[in-house]
Design brief:
Length: 507
């Protein structure tokens, strides 16, 4: 009998078996590392009925932390199918067992004893699954035998993390229990956050290379499709929307209001959008051409932009908005793309009025050579990459630690973070003169755009809330890892995913 089957095939088979009076039991999970706890769980589940089905979480929905699952869905399916007690195995199409329960209508849904107290489940999935089995007049039963954790075993004996990552995890684990971290992260919703910066429309044009033109020395591409996402400060506010209740975005769009309806549609409902219409300017568009659909390699960028700094009535209006708005917020996050929104005068107002200021004054292709963070006289938290700090300090050879120390003093920066791609990030605390390291947790990098903004937003939120440096770095690094694993800013940072990652990392 073939054990690994599709939903459609299995639904027909189960319907016939139930008609013959057979009792059907369903188990669901990731089962990354098949161990004795799983085997005992399946055996106990099988003893509850006649037919045992195991539904498997697909790779794309696994929230067990970076690098998970260790074993891909095909290998996990085959491992479970090899067990004598298992009759059928299916690959689920969603994160929870709600779908399999509704389609297969088992008599019993079986979970391990660690799911018995529903409030312990960060994702809230077990509540949905319990409701689904109740709806079809089945029942949920929790097994009682010995339990093990795949994540715990893999964390301890596998090569999931580097020694530097393990060191940070150990320090966090020593100070906190997961229940405490969960409470702290849930408490972030009390922080009132204002995001200031240019709103950008990110367009990704996927192409296929046809070859060199027969008439001109140029590459000819076939247009396949275009995806469109909110970028810039709008993307930052989206990333924060799952963490904060009171959240505002202060930005600018083009004089004619291009993309305004799109922006309003894509912004979550808990974000208050305030903006100016910049005279003689379009809404900023950054169009990037990629060499094919399956590959994120960018071959060309075309920007629609007027990056002249705000002047006259535009600057007066914006500064008036700053003065009126900033005092009402606990945390101000500025992402200055150097595209004309924030003048020197505006920067002074931001520095003077902010209770806690987080800053990313980034260098990009449109502003290199004429954009600097020096117009900001102080900040509580600043993020730069290694290229940006060397450009800012006009120093390409000195040790990065020395540059961080000097920049922190020169610009009155309380916490300075330097990101270094796959080498992780460094945080320098000017008050304690302590340097903290955090490894990069992303195992696959699809697109690096927006990673720095993502890390800054979550890091500053944590630091403002009183998290210690280690927990702040871990949480924000996991957010950045989540960001680079998707194209552009296609997905906002998900709080549950962060919590699940932390929960499993600390096991």
């Amino acid at each position: 009998m073939k054990k690994i089957v599709s939903f459609d095939v299995l639904a027909k088979t189960i319907s016939k078996l139930k008609a013959k009076g057979r009792k059907v039991v369903l188990c669901h999970g990731v089962f990354d590392l098949l161990h004795v706890g799983h085997i005992k769980h399946f055996k106990e589940a099988k003893n509850l009925g006649d037919v045992l089905i195991v539904s498997l979480t697909p790779d794309k929905f696994v929230n067990k932390g970076p690098g998970k699952p260790v074993f891909n869905e095909r290998l996990r399916l085959e491992a479970i199918a090899a067990l004598e007690d298992v009759n059928f195995v299916i690959l689920n199409t969603e994160p929870t067992a709600v779908g399999p329960i509704g389609k297969l209508k088992p008599n019993i849904y079986c979970k391990g004893p660690d799911y018995k107290i529903h409030s312990y489940d960060v994702s809230g999935q077990i509540r949905k699954e319990a409701a689904a089995i109740k709806k079809i007049k089945g029942k949920i039963i929790y097994t009682s035998d010995i339990t093990f954790s795949s994540s715990q075993i893999l964390n301890k004996y596998g090569n999931t993390y580097t020694e530097q990552q393990k060191s940070l995890i150990r320090r966090v684990k020593k100070k906190y229990q997961f229940s405490q971290i969960r409470k702290l992260i849930e408490g972030l919703k009390k922080i009132k956050v204002l995001v200031i910066g240019e709103t950008i429309i990110d367009q990704y044009v996927f192409c296929e290379a046809l070859g060199k033109s027969g008439k001109d020395p140029m590459l000819v591409l076939r247009d396949i499709k275009m995806d469109e996402y909110l970028g810039g400060a709008a993307a930052i506010s989206r990333h924060l929307s799952d963490f904060c209740n009171k959240l505002s975005l202060l930005s600018m769009i083009g004089e004619k209001g291009e993309f305004l309806s799109y922006i309003l549609k894509k912004l979550p409902k808990n974000i208050k959008f305030r903006y100016i219409r910049k005279k003689n300017s379009p809404t900023i568009i950054k169009k990037r051409f990629l060499d094919n659909v399956s590959n994120s390699n960018k071959v060309l960028g075309v920007y629609t932009i007027n990056d002249e700094v705000l002047r006259g009535s535009d600057e007066k209006l914006f500064n008036k908005m700053l003065k009126k708005t900033i005092p009402n917020y606990d945390l101000i996050i500025v992402s200055d793309y150097g595209h004309g929104l924030i003048s020197n005068k505006s920067a002074n107002i931001i520095c003077q009025l902010s209770k806690y200021l987080a800053l990313n004054a980034q260098i990009n292709a449109a502003n290199v050579g004429h954009h600097s963070m020096k117009k900001y006289k102080k900040a509580n938290c600043v993020i730069v990459n290694e290229r940006e700090i060397r450009h800012e300090m006009r120093d390409k050879n000195s040790k990065i630690e020395l540059l961080m120390q000097k920049l922190s003093i020169d610009q009155n920066i309380e916490n300075l973070i330097v990101t270094r791609g796959t080498e992780g990030s460094l945080l320098y605390d000017r008050k304690t003169k302590k340097l903290s390291f955090c490894g990069a947790y992303a195992k696959t990098t699809v697109d690096k755009i927006g990673a720095g903004d993502t890390m800054l937003s979550i890091l500053s939120l944590c630091l403002k809330s009183g998290f210690d440096k280690e927990l702040s770095l871990l949480t924000s690094s996991l957010a950045a890892a989540q960001s680079v694993e998707t194209i552009g800013n296609s997905e906002a940072i998900n709080k549950v995913k962060i919590l699940k990652s932390i929960e499993n990392i600390l096991k």
